[in-house]
Amino acid sequence: MDAETQQAPAPRAAETERQQVTGVVTSAKMQKTIVVRVTRTVQHRLYRRVQRRAKKYYAHDEHQQARPGDTVRIESTRPLSRLKRWRLVEVLSRATGYRGD
Fold it and tell me: What distances in angstroms separate CA 96 from CA 41, 67, 69, 78, one per listed residue?
């Protein structure tokens, strides 16, 4: 068998990278669940103006360490409930006088 025809084995699920995003906690009122607002910038296809788009993600916070206004990093995981598909990785910065939206 040639080295060219031999292929590397496909990576298993444990070896693949999980998707991670950074956002701001908007709600921490549920038990072990936080709502994270992730804002991204996209360029308009026709007018080329930069726009902000936001999306809410429900994330699992096992130790209930995140508070509203904190900047956090979350990563994708298996479905934990009807809406939760993400889990908290770390709190990047704490909130100072968060007002909410």
Answer: 25, 11, 8, 32
- What is the reported pLDDT for 28? 96
Q: Which amino acid, residue 81?
A: S
Do the Cβ atoms of 28 and 72 come closer than 8 Å?
no
Q: Is 13 helix (H, G, I), strand (E, B) or coil?
A: helix
- Amino acid identity, residue 60? H
Contact between 74 and 62 under an 8 Å Cβ cutoff? The reply is no
Task: List Cα–Cα distances, 24 to 1, 28, 36, 41, 50, in angstroms.
Answer: 53, 11, 5, 15, 21
d(CA 25, CA 32): 13
Q: What is the CATH number of domain 18-93?
A: 2.40.50.140
Domain ranges of the chain: 18-93
Residue 95 pLDDT grade (very low, low, confident, very high; cuts 50, 70, 90): confident
C-alpha to C-alpha distance for 1 and 4, rounded to whole angstroms: 8
* Paired residues of 21 in beta bridges: 74
